[in-house]
Design brief:
Order of helices and strands: HEEHHEE
Largest sheet: 4 strands, antiparallel
Shape: globular
Length: about 100
């Protein structure tokens, strides 16, 4: 590791509220060889389970299906994206009730 890696945060978590929703954003770097599988995991799809290729990444994907279910139960959503060497997950959950 170089000095820049030691200073740069590896995982960033942001939590706040907006328009009656709790917003949670988690962002972390990933290895270049994980790019294709993470892009597949982040692609919009109907199933809540990780795809076969995503299963090749044991540290990714299983918790996301649970978060997606919880977000939908709370009239919210889960958005996943892969960009600039970072994996981002943003969950919105309706507050109240």
């Amino acid at each position: 590791r170089d000095a820049e890696d030691l200073v740069r945060p590896q995982v960033a978590v942001t939590i706040g509220t907006t328009r009656g929703y709790l917003a949670v954003r988690v962002e972390n770097p990933y290895l270049p060889e994980e790019d294709a599988a993470l892009r597949e995991l982040a692609a919009p799809r109907r199933t809540l389970r990780p795809t076969e290729r995503a299963h090749n990444l044991p540290q990714h994907g299983w918790g996301l299906s649970i978060v997606r279910e919880l977000a939908e139960l709370r009239q919210g959503s889960l958005k996943l994206e892969v960009a600039d060497g970072r994996f981002r997950a943003v969950a919105l959950l309706k507050l109240g009730e």
